[in-house]
Amino acid sequence: MEWTGARYADTPTVEVRTWVDAPPDRVWGIVSDVTLMPDMSDELQSVQWLDGAVGPAVGARFVGRSRHESLGEWETTSHVIECEPPHVLAWAVSDPAGPSAVWRFRLESKDGGTELAEWMQMGPGRSGLSFAIDSMPDKEQKIVFVRLREFERNMTVTLAQIKKLAEA
Length: 168
Prior knowledge:
7-stranded antiparallel β-sheet; Alpha-D-Glucose-1,6-Bisphosphate, Chain A, domain 4; Polyketide_cyclase/dehydratase; about 170 residues
């Protein structure tokens, strides 16, 4: 990832891709089970569907609990905003109209397997990062850059875990 000098209000994004030697339906089975994600992440600790939901559908909600050594522990409610099996799963964190983040998995049939992409956007709604920026506004661009790099590293690990599971 290149230094962009992005500010939080710019809703910066990061995307990671990998090719998986498995068909999209198999990869979708893993990606769409968000309760598996804490096993693939140092930060995300647990995920639980809300309102009786047992899987993704537009409008379904889940609560995620996370931990980060600099940001502490927190809990967010996410809202599924796109669900097109076996191609797209996306959710908005907190308020779908002004999310603190948007996350999206895209799956595409390619070369006898699946090209899998994970994408995320910061903001435009406030997040835990907003408090760090509020306390050090002169360091906003560095804070955003460092957090995007963390997301990129974590997403790379997540995709590697999904690939391993799907190819097993």
